[in-house]
Amino acid sequence: MARGSRLVDLVHARIEDFLAGRSSILRSISPDLDPLDAFSRRFLSGGKRFRALFCYWGWESVAGRGFDPFESDGGRDHYPVVSAASALELFHAAALVHDDLIDNSDTRRGAPSAHRLFESLHADSGWAGGSAEFGRASAILLGDLLLGWSDELFDEGLDAVADRQAARAARAEFMRMRTEVTSGQYLDILEERAWLVQPEAEQRTRAERVIVYKSAKYSIESPLVIGGALAGASAAQLAALRGFGLPLGIAYQLRDDLLGVFGDPEVTGKPSGDDLREGKRTMLVAIARERLSTGQRRLLDELLGDPDLGADQVRMLQRTIADCGAVEEVEAMIADNLASATAVLEDAPLSRDARAELGSLAKAVTRRAS
């Protein structure tokens, strides 16, 4: 994945260049906006860049040009796929800022979440009013700012696309992705609260719907399709990218669900059992509820979503979920979805080089520890 690794560096440089231009606008308004600049850079400085990589390989799978960002003029900003990949990272940062706010999460990647950073700024500065209110309001605005910037950066890339039909197709997928992930986020918070009055027989279906629209499409399928569309993909090529991307995206989120309950905080950057405290009604929880005895299920329902869960209670819930066989079933689902995704690649009308790299990426996103 050498080219992919070099692309990550190029995406980072593109983001830095874009932010530098927006920073000058913020400074021209007021030095009081410096925290918006600093915190936006902070949230865009790290991460695995999976969305950027899938966007690039979606493009390469159709273009088949062996693009190397560090050869010839490949590092210049006019490459639409680089701007599109970078825009996806800005969109992702915006989503994380808002997601942490919705979930009331204290940390992100081992550091304070955006609203906590603004809370600390307020408290340390001795300003009037409550720090929590200032933190929440400021984080909403930071997320909105990043969301708007992602659109600007995406359009900069589209302006350089000679094939206007391809540009329109990529833009249509980007807009659809925004609608789907916002809808998925709403469905997620709905499940945390409405599960009590929903039929037990529907809990898996409802959990899968959240997986598909909050994560699977936005994390993998849409970046692939956006990249492919930029390269002028045919209907068959787009269908192959979707056929690969959706099951892989489901496997990706199922892995995330396991990490949200059992992940090592030193690796994930999140407290152990964070999804338990947040009350996430994931597929893992749906399966566990089916397998547990009436008493165990009642205890799980009682404790799930308690933000004050202690370490002993978290460990008890982890054991309960693991001992009932829910973890093994989710692992099997991950394996099945990975197999379905990779099977699509075997005879897909995509470049052989890209198919090999996508196969490697598929293993990386489903076997990760954070």
TrEMBL record:
SUPFAM superfamilies: Terpenoid synthases
Cofactor(s) listed: Mg(2+)
Annotated PROSITE patterns: POLYPRENYL_SYNTHASE_1 (PS00723), POLYPRENYL_SYNTHASE_2 (PS00444)
Protein origin, superkingdom: Bacteria
Coiled coil: none
Keyword match Magnesium: yes
Gene3D superfamilies: Farnesyl Diphosphate Synthase (1.10.600.10)
Pfam families: polyprenyl_synt
Gene Ontology molecular-function annotations: metal ion binding; prenyltransferase activity
Single Gene Ontology BP annotation: isoprenoid biosynthetic process
Keywords from the UniProt entry: Magnesium, Metal-binding, Transferase
Family statement: Belongs to the FPP/GGPP synthase family.
Name this protein carries in UniProt: Polyprenyl synthetase family protein
